[in-house]
Amino acid sequence: MAISRTRKYWLSLVSLGLLLCFVVVLSIQVRQSGLLKNAIEYNENEVSWGSFQLEREALNFQLGLKSAFEELDDEAQAQLRLRYDIFWSRYDVVKNNPSARKILDGKEYDQAITLLGRFFDETEQYFPPGPGYRIGTLQLRHISQTLEPVLPKVQALANLSIHRAIELSESRNRQVRDQILISTALVIFQFILTLTFFYLVIRLVSKLQSSHEDLTRLANYDQLTGLPNRRLFYDRLEQEIRNAERSGMRIALMYIDLDNFKDVNDTQGHDVGDALLKEAALRLTHSVRKSDTVARLGGDEFTIILPGLGDAKAVARIGESILGALTEPFPSNDRANFISASIGVTIYPDDARDVNNLLQNADQAMYVAKSLGRNRYHYFTQDMHAQAQARMRRIHDLRSALSNREFCLRYQPIVELSTGRIYKAEALIRWTHPTEGFLSPNDFIPLAEETGLIVELGNWICEEALEQSAVWRKTIDPEFQISINTSPVQLCASETRLDAWHGWLEQLRLPGNALAMEITESILMNEDAAERLLAVQSMGLEVSLDDFGTGYSTLSYLKKFDIDYLKIDKSFVQSLKPGSSDFVLCEAIILMAHKLGIRVVAEGIETEDQRRYLAQMGCDFGQGFLFSRPVSASDFQRLASSRTIACGQEGS
Ligand code: C2E
Ligand code: CA
Ligand code: CA
After folding, report:
1. Probe target for ligand 1 pocket from 453, 485, 611, with the most ligand atoms within 8 Å of CB
2. For 399-414, what is the mean pLDDT?
3. Which residue puts its alpha carbon closest to atom 25 of ligand 1?
4. Which terminus of the chain has a lower count of CB atoms within 10 Å, N or C?
5. Atom 20 of ligand 1 has which residue's CA nearest to it?
6. Is it the case that residue 458 has pLDDT exceeding 60?
7. Could you tell me the domains of the chain?
């Protein structure tokens, strides 16, 4: 799941907001620290102390002057000089102190400094450097007069300094207090910002992580069952092969195909089918160890990788347990579904050493399990490999057979039992293979269905049979009808163009009933096929239900689809004896069909007895070697013209 556009937009907006906040906070802090720096740099205490010292020394000097007037001996001379020097140095400190200038800056300061400057300029001459000078009373008076106007200014400066010092220290206290408050607020604010930022980042990261996990899940796991999909299965098998190369252990690969799953899906809908697949996946998972990989390749096909295989018996045990688990009923809404599985097993490294060949082997073994009657497991053998190769070759040949004109139709008469008349035939396809010779439909129809070639083939059969029907309507019987066999795959395929069939009928000026379509019962349960069947019927074609009795034989469908003919399967006919269950069944089928207005064809009649029994039961038509094997069109023409059916006549 990707992050939505609005989410991204909001996230960028919030990040921008956070950045702005950081900048504002930073600038406030910079400003605050500037103020504090000022306050610390200009020390008002030092300034007020300096001014105070200056005032004190000015007074001391005045006192010195006073005592000099009284007694101006050498010691007094020296004392006065010392006081003068200290006074001057105090003046120098206050004058050159940058803080003083900054803090006291103003009229008082300027006046005091100017007056002091002037005082020292004028009196400097009385205190020349070095010994041997003397200060007389006259000079003392001059000094005293010059000092007089200076003293109040110095006092005023000292007062101002103290005043400013108090003011400044109060203001600084305020600033420090504010700074502490602001700093605390900023720290809290920054803490919240940082928390918010981390929260957003963590959310974003976990979002990215979960969307990454979603993508991985989608790419590697089957959405319906939650099992590893084909891609992950390949990865795991490759990994297990690498492990096995190191450890020398064997791996078993199972290919599992559910039997009859398609019927459940077709008859009960995809929801029931999906639920069954989920349950089957669960049962498979429970049948193996946690370290084994159960994967779904698609549809009703699963694979299981069993690594670290000790003895072959383990595989058999697991195979049995899977078969057992899958034959248990699958509860659905109001009924239980029963399925089974066909399992193909191949072993690494005995049968193959790479993923593709292992999978191919297991698949082939699975097909053999199916063909042997399903609900079983079968091991891969090298024979199977050869067979699979032959199969591939046959599919390859099949693709060019139609354009090479290697197919032909044989016709087997369908005889009216009460009169012996032939005015119907079943068209049966044959393939003259360039190297293998005459092939029966069972050898290639399933392959044609699997590869989709059946559609093209079916169209050819239809066209060919219609042309033949048109001929025989002229030469044998104006009501002549040819039955063609149609497989469910062919009927469902969108490429089967029924409008083309209609076109051929019109071209040959034939009514729809010149053709009958033989279908098997399973078609009626497939919704798509059933719909197309109705379209076929609307063209006037008749419908014959083939191999009746071997499939579902759901009687309700007979009425629903307006079936014209019902063909009793040859397996019932071949063991027909009075008193046998088949005898009773045939009687019942004929009776029921007649009641529904359906005519009956019995297939596979080989003996005169069989013909007689069926005729006595009231069966309408018969077909079988007794009358004729499937023959070429020209032989059929001769056969029908003679009107006398020779028993067991051989076709070419
Ligand atoms: P089906 O539709 O049941 O055809 C009848 C099969 O029974 C034919 O086999 C026929 O030769 C055989 N048969 C007829 N009379 C007797 C008999 O007295 N005794 C015995 N033992 N067999 C008899 P065939 O021609 O080998 O066809 C086999 C199946 O192949 C057909 O069974 C049909 O399902 C399929 N098939 C044949 N032609 C076509 C075709 O053109 N299209 C399609 N889709 N399937 C076809
Ligand atoms: Ca048939
Ligand atoms: Ca049949």
Report:
1. 485
2. 97
3. 428
4. C
5. 604
6. yes
7. 2-188 (1.20.120), 230-380 (3.30.70.270), 394-642 (3.20.20.450)
Query: What's the chain's Rg over C-alpha atoms?
Result: 57
pTM, two decimal places: 0.57
CA distance 413 to 428: 11
* Residue closest by Cα to atom 43 of ligand 1: 485
The pLDDT of residue 52: 87
Q: Could you write out the DSSP letters of every residue in 398-467?
A: HHHHTTTT-EEEEEEEEEETTT--EEEEEEEEEEEETTTEEE-HHHHHHHHHHHTHHHHHHHHHHHHHHH
CA of 500 to the centre of ligand 1 (A): 26
Residue 417, phi then psi, degrees to nearest 5: -65, -30
Q: Which amino acid is at 575?
A: S
Distance between Cα 78 and ligand 2 center (Å): 151
Cβ neighbours of residue 580 under 8 Å, at least 6 residues apart?
Answer: none
- pLDDT for res 1: 42
The minimum-distance atom of ligand 1 relative to the CA of 458 is: 42
Q: Is the pLDDT of residue 357 over 90?
A: yes
Amino acid 3: pLDDT: 53
Span 373-385, pLDDT tens digits: 999 999 999 888 8
Atom of ligand 1 nearest to the CA of 442: 30
